[in-house]
Amino acid sequence: MIVLHLHDKRSLGNNGVFPVDFTQQGIADALDIGRNHAGVELNRLVGKGIVQVRDAWVKGVKGQRKVYTLTHAGLVFAEIYADVYSAELAARRMKEEGPGDNWLIEMEMRMSEKRPAAPARSEVPDLSLPM
User: Fold this and answer.
1) pLDDT of res. 35
2) What pLDDT, on the 0 to 100 scale, is given for residue 23?
3) Which residue has the higher pLDDT, 44 or 12?
4) Cα distance between residue 84 and residue 78, in whole Å
5) CB of 42 closer than 8 Å to CB of 27
6) Could you say which DSSP state residue 20 is in?
């Protein structure tokens, strides 16, 4: 989840000043986990080369703080993880809640887009044999 959080926030720290979301406390608050747990996981991700840590300015905080961002490998991992995670969530929701009220309507719309419309009755040629 930390990887997805950093991936979602990646465009916010481009000017060299980061929002609190990139600090250990900001990540812990956003994910509703303990700060110590966030630190353990961040260190693990840094060790794997998925996250990088550096000192930077943080909005609303005096002095510089450690901020965590994704490495290039972390960005690739996050893209793959996000796709897999969203597919798993969709499958779980489908299993728990069923297809939902709009499922049949959506399927009918998709089918009508793929199949040609039926010709009007006046356009259907008369194929009867002359007697």
Assistant:
1) 92
2) 92
3) 44
4) 10
5) yes
6) G
Q: Mention every residue, 6+ apart, whose C-beta is less than 8 A from residue 9.
A: 19, 21, 22
* Rounded Cα–Cα distance for residues 40 and 59 (Å): 24
What is the sign of the dihedral through the CA atoms of 15, 20, 21 and 22? positive
As a whole number of angstroms, the distance between CA 5 and CA 97 comes to 26
**Given the DSSP bridges, would you call strands 17-18 and 51-58 parallel, antiparallel or unpaired?**
parallel
- Distance between CA atoms of residues 117 and 4, nearest Å: 43
Model pLDDT for residues 69-120, shown as the tens digit of each residue: 999 988 888 888 777 776 666 666 666 666 555 655 665 666 665 555 555 5
Encoding tokens for residue 21?
A: 């979301």
Query: Domains of the chain (ranges plus CATH)?
Result: 2-111 (1.10.10.10)
